[in-house]
Amino acid sequence: MTxxxxxxxxxxxxxxxxxxxxxxxxxxxxxxxxxNQPLVVTYNYSVKLSKASLLHQPDSLWRYAxxxxxxxxxxxxxxxxxxxxxxxxxxxxxxxxxxxxxxxxESCNPTGSFKARGLSVAVSKAKELGITKCIIxxxxxxxxxxxxxxxxxxxxxxxxxxxxxxxxxxxxxLLYGANLVLVDGLIHDCAQKAMEINADKCYFDVSTLKExxxxxxxxxxGYEIAEQLNWQLPDVIIYPAGxxxxxxxxxxAFKEMQLLGWIDGPLPRMIAVQSAQCAPLLYAQKDIxxxxxxxxxxxxxxNGLAVPYPFGMTxxxxxxxxxxxxALALSEAEIIDGVKEIARNxxxxxxxxxxxxxxxxVHLSRNHAILPxxxxxxxxxxxxxxxxxxxxxx
Length: 394
Ligand SMILES: Cc1ncc(COP(=O)(O)O)c(C=O)c1O
What we know:
Largest sheet: 6 strands, mixed
Strand order of the largest sheet: 4-5-13-10-11-12
Order of helices and strands: EEEEHEHEHEHEHEHEHEHHEHHE
Mean pLDDT: 95
Shape: globular
Bound molecules: pyridoxal-5'-phosphate
Helix content: 25-40%
CATH architecture of the domain at 86-111 and 215-390: 3-Layer(aba) Sandwich
CATH topology of the domain at 86-111 and 215-390: Rossmann fold
Strand content: 15-25%
């Protein structure tokens, strides 16, 4: 696909998210060895970049190429990701007597989830850096997206996935030509297996936040939310958090747009929803030092939320604290109920992760943690069609 973008990136460095030590932008880096924390891409924010320049940009996330890490547009690997629709859930809010709420529908992305954003940017950067093989531990969606973008780029791909993941997530990887490894356990067990496979470091490890580029793709959700809402941000954003790249990425976008002079005024409260089966954020919010010993992670119907020990925990907590947000967890029954309600009332079959944001909105509105006057945006992060194996029909 040919694409017309800004002929440059404003990226200048990779920076440790903790101590801010700078690493060279041009070399292959994974995470910040200085603090064992994620690396983030930093840009020259004093560059003259106007919102009006977006008028001439493509109708995909690559419209923000000046704030993405790819240097040469020829390396862009795109399947048409981004610029997903935002619409009100009128039927549901009328039924519940709640104030209007917006849904940004990421199921419209290639491979049916928002993971396409991160993997389009990470695989583009991998191609630019001359990488020939990638590996990923995944709860499902990220594996399919990596497989698709690697297929398009001609890059080898190995996906390590929990065995209990619905069949379609496995089949799509195989159809895209990836090498699929199944593991008994959750994503942290897959990460362990991926490390073993990559013992000689011949793969580029695309694990969540263990390389800096997926975050850049995910942050484009924040740019789009601002642009699609005419640069007036919502008061509250509700996001289904697993590894946290979306949560951290959207917040990064808001901070960048402030520095670029694209937005002003208060930023949204960022609310992270998890499954009660695996809710490390809840425990870490209460006890940052000992949270890992406070819970036993279980699989969930919302596969993407089963991330017991996220590498980006410190960054996620910082977003919740700084934005005045919070984390909450929902039962499996509530999540399934949310999927069914939205399907029956709105005609949308959304991912269980996305349905969790709707149920969280209902809870928080009833508890007056969200006021009727507040503008709220939910993220549906994926397509419900990939999860059909998770439901039993009686
Ligand atoms: C549909 C869906 N929603 C949410 C998540 C969680 O995303 P993140 O790890 O960026 O927090 C995932 C991760 O697999 C997912 O597939």
